[in-house]
Amino acid sequence: MTATTTTMPPTPRASAPLVARESLWSRIRRGSLWISITTVAIMILLWEVIPQIGIVNRILFPTFSDTILGFGQLVSGGYWWEDLGKTLYAVAIAWVIGVTFGFVMGVALGISPFIRTAITPYAIAVQALPKVVLAPLLIGWLGFGSESKIALAVIICFFPVWIDTMVGLALPNANEFKLMQSLKASRWQVFTKLQLPSAVPMIMVGVKHALLLAFTGVLVAEILSASDGGLGKLAKEFASQLNMSLTYAVVLVVVIIAVALVSLADVVERRVVFWSEESRARKR
Amino acid sequence: MTTMTQTAPLVRAEGVTKRFGSGEKEMVALSGLNLEVQEGEFLSLLGPSGCGKSTALNIMGGLLSATEGTITFSGEPMIEPRREIGMMFQQAVMFPWRTTLDNVLLPVEIFGEKKKDYIAKADELLGMVGIKDFRDSYPWQLSGGMQQRAALCRVLLHDPKLLLLDEPFGALDEFTREAMNQELLRLQAYSGSTAVLVTHNITEAVFMSDRIAVMSARPGRLVGILEVPFDRPRTPDLQTTNDFVKLVAEARRMLELQ
After folding, report:
1. Rounded to an integer, what distance in angstroms lies between the CA atom of residue B235 and that of residue B239?
2. Would you say residue A69 lies in a domain?
3. B179 closest CB neighbour out of A7, A175, A185
4. Phi and psi dihedrals of B70, rounded to 5?
5. Which residues on A lie below 8 Å from B97 (Cβ)?
6. Distance, in angstroms, between B183 CA and closest chain A CA?
7. Nearest-angstrom CA–CA distance, B105 and B99
8. pLDDT beyond 50 at A18
9. Structural domain for A97, as ranges
10. R_g of chain B, CA atoms, integer Å
11. Which residues in chain A touch residue B62, judged by CB atoms under 8 angstroms apart?
């Protein structure tokens, strides 16, 4: 009896910390952080020097320091916070609506073959369509306010959530379904205890993707219909005044926001689907 | 066939045939299976791939319905999966978002019972298979053998009357597989369950079983039943005895007859 219980020594793997991830400190020690810092420094240096020595026109391509000055000017302007707020608000609303709609559609198509057959042709059409073309239509229907902006962003961002949810729900393998069937699990139990948890890693990918697409959608709409304000409107206005350092500053802000959103989403993703990387590497 | 015992069999299959598809694509997976599984025995379904042994097992478990023939469990017709029947598959089927303990307790949730009523039992079983220290680890932190140990705990949690085992250790290496077979015999004896094992490994079938149902392929059918008279508990030494080797040869001969 006891002999058999000692045949399996604990593997070292099992005693390793649950979520081992490279810390900032270890990156500094290993030197990989220095590589990143050096490349960024070289980029900034080139950005600073090339317009100054006249290879490109400094008016059209402002230097790094011009851009930083423009950034200061931008931030000190009273209109700035309102425009930033309008953009982020629209992104947040569009993202929530897009993710919710995409998830509901994904679940409907994922669990009902009938709905899947009925809707798939339209789904393919929607996917193939460059959705920006709908912008004039939406502005015509909903006016120049935030509604048309949010509508365009929703249309652009819901698709990956939809598809990833649908695909994710089909991920469990035959044995997993058989186990649930052998336990006489109801359809609802199979969905909540097997399909949905299996789909979460995929859904998270779609949700992350949707965040950036919503951002893109809002900016495009702002550039097309300037009356509601926002970062897109600022970029367009500064560019039309040939105020390139301010235009660059807006672009810089957009880059910073995008990177921040992606990083935040990555952190959340790792917390939510802590099992995903490890188990995927071992399974299938 | 020859098993005319006094007690009613736990499982009785009469003329069970299973066809998949229809028309030209029709495939007969299992043809006219007559088989009785006695209470408390360890029966193996032995045969090459395509002999319908897994199909037969799935029909016994209520996962598939027979095209023809009847199958009863404790005298009642099998029409759907039952709680008294526990199934194990080729893979451990552990959900990676659940800890070992929560995986073992999955049936409790599905059956709508209280988890806390079963934690002590689950811990006891995990202790018996030697992975109690890993109750709060996740499956991907466990080796394949440890995962199957956990799966064994999960299937035994509700004291099933019948264990249906579809090559449960087929994916494991030879050493782990032997250890797991020992473990399985020990726990089956402890729980008093009846067991039906699907395997294509002759030695394994002889070592584990009281009776072996030898099957052949295309169409899947029963060739004959081989009685294995060795005493229990069985130890690995048994495999080197003359009687054991003779039975293995006998089983091989039955398989090759077709």
Report:
1. 8
2. no
3. A7
4. -125, 155
5. 197, 200, 275
6. 7
7. 10
8. no
9. 80-283
10. 18
11. 182
ipTM rounded to 2 decimals = 0.88
pLDDT score of B43 more than 90: yes
Q: Considering the domain boundaries, does residue A176 fall inside one? A: yes
CATH number, residue A95: 1.10.3720.10
- Range A5-12 average pLDDT: 40
B258 — pLDDT class (breaks 50, 70, 90):
low
Residue position matching structure tokens 């045939």: B17
Closest-CA distance of chain B to residue A6, Å: 7
In a domain, A279, yes or no: yes
The model's confidence at residue A279, banded by pLDDT at 50, 70 and 90, is low
- Residue B211 predicted with pLDDT over 90: yes
Q: Which residues of A fall within a CB distance of 8 Å from B95?
A: 176, 193-194, 197
Chain A residues close to B179, C-beta within 8 Å: 4, 7-8
Q: What is d(CA B49, CA A274) in angstroms, rounded to the nearest whole number?
A: 38
- What is the total count of domains within chain A? 1
Q: Does A14 touch chain B (CB under 8 A)?
A: yes
Is B111's CB within 8 Å of A183's CB?
A: yes
Q: Do B138 and A183 touch (CB under 8 A)?
A: no
User: For B32-71, where are the alpha helices, taking DSSP H only?
Assistant: 53-60
Q: Using CB atoms within 10 A of its CB, is residue A81 exposed (0-12), middle (13-18) or buried (19+)?
A: exposed
Asked if A7 has any chain B CB less than 8 Å from its own CB, the reply is: yes
Closest CA to A178 of B8, B127, B191, B168: B168
Note the pLDDT tens digit of each residue in A137-159.
888 888 888 888 999 999 999 99
Neighbours of B198 (CB within 10 A): 26
Identify from A7, A179, A184, A191 which residue to disrupt to test chain B contact, counting B C-beta atoms within 10 A and taking the largest count: A179
Is residue A15 situated within a structural domain?
Answer: no
Q: How many CA atoms lie within 13 A of B212 on its CB side?
A: 28
Which chain A positions have a beta carbon within 8 Å of B83's beta carbon? Answer: 184
The dihedrals phi and psi of B157, each to the nearest 5 degrees, come to: -55, -35
User: Touching check for A23 and chain B: CB below 8 Å?
Assistant: no
Both tokens assigned to B1? 């066939």
Q: Is the pLDDT of residue A282 over 50?
A: no
What are the chain A neighbours of B89 within 8 Å (beta carbons)? 175, 178-179
